[in-house]
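[09:14] KT: can someone run the structure on this one? pasting the chain below
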Amino acid sequence: MNYRDFLQKLIYVVINPIIKAMIAIGITPNVVTTIGFVGNLVATGLFIAGGIALQEGDAAGGMALIGWGGFTILFAGLFDMMDGRLARMGNMSSTFGALWDSTLDRYSEMVSLFGISVVFLNAGWFWTGIVTYAAILGSVMVSYVRARAEGLDIECKVGLLQRPERVVITAVVAMVTGCTGNLWWLAGGMAVIALLANMTAFWRVAHCYHELAKHDKK
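[09:31] RB: done, structure tokens below
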């Protein structure tokens, strides 16, 4: 059992009673997915507000807003886990639900990282804002390559940094930034995502190349 499966089982112990309550009152997976997306929009708003506060010279207020943005991302991430679990436990899986979940996952990640790029640009950290944009590109391409590969009947889950890891890194470094008042934590997290997400995207391209080459030789 890898570390992701182990952590997932621990989290399921906590959320299963909540899932059962949702089933009992008729909450659907698509509603849970939407709530998670709204949570990420709130986090983005907190990041933007934090960036404005930093620009206006309110360092303490800006850092606090960044920290709360990180906490909100982590909280919203629980809904991202619960929608799939709810679909399975409540026998409510659907093709549209899978599409809706994937679509809002991409939007959630892009808007939250956009909010962080605003923080850096407003704080005068221009190049770190560019690094955050690279993190957005890498995050999108990791998911795109996998989706395109699966369209070609290739299983493509290889790589170092999938979405759960990216969400945790973003949330944790934002919270630590808020607690310490040190923007370098957030900058470091964005650099890690920018590097490893783009590496993962190209790793997946290479994996698909080898899989397709084996198929072509048959």
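[09:33] KT: thanks! The chain has seven helices and no strands.
[09:34] RB: yep, looked fine to me
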